[in-house]
Amino acid sequence: MRLYRVIIVCLALLASSFLIKNSFAQNEEVGYYQQTGHRVSQEFLTAYYSIPAPEKIYGYPITQAFSIPAADGVSQLQVQYFEHVRFEYDPQKPAEVQVSLSPLGVYVYDYAQSHNPGAPLAVTPGLAACREINTHQVCYAFLDFFDTNGGISQFGYPISEVEDEDGLMVQYFQRARFEWRPEKPAGERVVLSNLGEMYFQIAKEDPHYKMPASGGDILLVVTSLKIDAFVERAVIGNEDTQTLYVIVSNQNGQPAPEAAVSFDLLLANGETNTVKMPLTDSNGITQISFPTQNQSIGINFIPIQASYDKFSQKTTISYRVWW
User: Fold this and answer.
1) Which end of the chain is more exposed for a tag (fewer CB within 10 A), N or C?
2) Quick one: 282 and 183 in the same domain?
3) Cα 300-319-254 angle, rounded to 5 deg
């Protein structure tokens, strides 16, 4: 009987060990996002899943976690950037508030005000579809989105009226910026700006933090394409040879191999030639050379289109024939 009990206990311990290992494996899997190639772990992962739709509100991680100086100039904060937000971890604070969201709405709004301020749009006072919050009016679909997705506790207080920024209707909150996208389907026309991406650039953070996680089975996952294109010679003669280089990458800067690339050569004399380039190589690069023989003096434009799977992107560059 004693031997039987020992066997049962051993089996139970083995089962427990198996479950624990599986639990850790599942947590690690949940914390890795193929969309951007980054992992979210420990306290940030708990905070990320503390709301019903984190991918919608926070977006996907765009950096690894790293340290920055705290406001006191002595201690360090651990931060991690996501598409729409930045998480901060301060172990000196009480456990329930150690992880918080940076006020990126404030940071980006202050930057916009000093560089390219938007034009406030007039709102008629007293509208039933509006509510005054902290001296600012939040109205219509913006108000619905605000109330439905966490309100003040999630986005903070509004810090601007609705503004027109280069033709885009936006409103800033302490931790978010709402955008009105009329081209989207009904019910999806309010979207959150990529404040994480924007402030990462404004703060001039080290771009190495955006490099995808190393190790493991990291796949090329595409949610959007980027195109970098340039010609070998920006100014060239009409009896020469021009070379066009195109680099196609995904949203994280990872090369997109075997992407299809084509371009239209719009000559200064009004002629148009459509050219299909070789597929991109393992580095996401393709190139082609073509003669400039008898091209008219003037600027030639090159609209370029790249496609990979179901995604596509366009850009346009130019060169000048000078002699």
Assistant:
1) N
2) no
3) 110
